[in-house]
Automatic annotation (TrEMBL):
This is Cobalt transporter subunit CbtB. Keywords: Membrane, Transmembrane, Transmembrane helix. It comes from Natronococcus jeotgali DSM 18795. The keyword Membrane applies. It comes from the Archaea.
Amino acid sequence: MTTSNETVRDRIDRARLELSPPQILAVVALTAALGFALLFLQEPLAHDSMHNFRHAAGITCH
C-alpha cells in the first residue's frame, strides 16, 4: 500500500519492520554483487548482459 506522500524513508522504515536480518543481508549481498559486476566486468558480453537485465527489471539507465 503506497500513498502519494510516502517517502523513501517511510519505505525503508517499513522494510525494516517486514524483513528479517537474513533477507536484508541477501538484498545487500545481491546489490554488492551486481555493483561489482557492473564496475569491474566491463567486457562487452558481461556489460551488455547486465544492461539488458536492468532494462528487463524496469530500471531506466539512460
